[in-house]
Design goal:
heterodimer, A: 114 residues, mainly beta, seven-stranded mixed sheet, four-stranded antiparallel sheet, B: 110 residues, globular
Chain lengths: 114, 110
């Protein structure tokens, strides 16, 4: 049981490049989400999904795109990377969208945009 | 709106000292409350949770009680160890979204 798997672990992009951060979970969780972690700001929600085919925006969605074609996968796409998107990105899943279910996190992707 | 305010760090304690990290929240309805721990270079791991008022979550010697009257969920441990050095996040889940505090860095020195 791998839990939540994120790839890659590290990435350097040039301004304007695009890329996809991968996230997969093997726990049959309905709810998946993406956060960015910046110093002094905690975790901020980028996008989330309450099930396959359903996505919604979080607090900081600009510059990012998501889709959820399967229960297992929830990729995050950076359309045109900017230095402001330098951050650590975490994918998380929970059994459902119910308030009492906890989130399980991946190991993170450290992204640097130069 | 929904939010979490967490005690700012960093916090440095000697081994076997008592730990308190304060967390207060603002939320509508009946949220669940969580404490997560993050070790260097890793993702967040659930430490404990409470889903209703007066519930006490506990794990690995850590405890926190859901206090609706004071809108608080303070994390405590009676005797910290060097291995407890990490960043601790308080989190709130009133519905389908989570809201996280900014994190409190704890360093325990021998």
């Amino acid at each position: 049981n791998a839990g939540v798997t994120q790839t890659p672990k590290f990435q350097v992009l040039k301004t304007g490049q695009s890329m996809t951060l991968q996230c997969a979970q093997d726990m049959n969780h309905e709810y998946m989400s993406w956060y960015r972690q910046d110093p002094g700001m905690g975790l901020r929600l980028i996008h989330y999904s309450v099930g396959a085919g359903i996505t919604d925006q979080g607090e900081v969605p600009n510059g990012y795109n998501v889709s959820r074609s399967t229960t297992e996968d929830f990729p995050l796409r950076l359309l045109s990377a900017a230095p402001s998107q330098t951050s650590v990105y975490f994918c998380a899943s929970s059994y459902s969208a119910e308030r009492y279910t906890e989130a399980f996190f991946g190991q993170g992707t450290r992204l640097t945009v130069v | 709106g929904d939010s979490v305010t967490q005690m700012e760090g960093p916090v440095t304690l000697s081994e076997e000292a008592f730990l308190t990290i304060n967390c207060t929240y603002t939320a509508t309805g009946y949220p669940s409350l969580f404490w997560y721990v993050q070790y260097p270079g890793e993702g967040l791991q659930l430490l404990l949770k409470a889903t209703k008022a007066d519930d006490k979550g506990s794990n690995k010697g850590f405890e926190a009680t859901y206090r609706k009257e004071t809108t608080s969920f303070h994390l405590e441990k009676g005797s910290v160890q060097v291995s407890d050095s990490a960043v601790y996040f308080c989190a709130l889940r009133p519905g389908n979204q989570f809201y996280f505090g900014t994190g409190t860095s704890l360093t325990v020195i021998p």
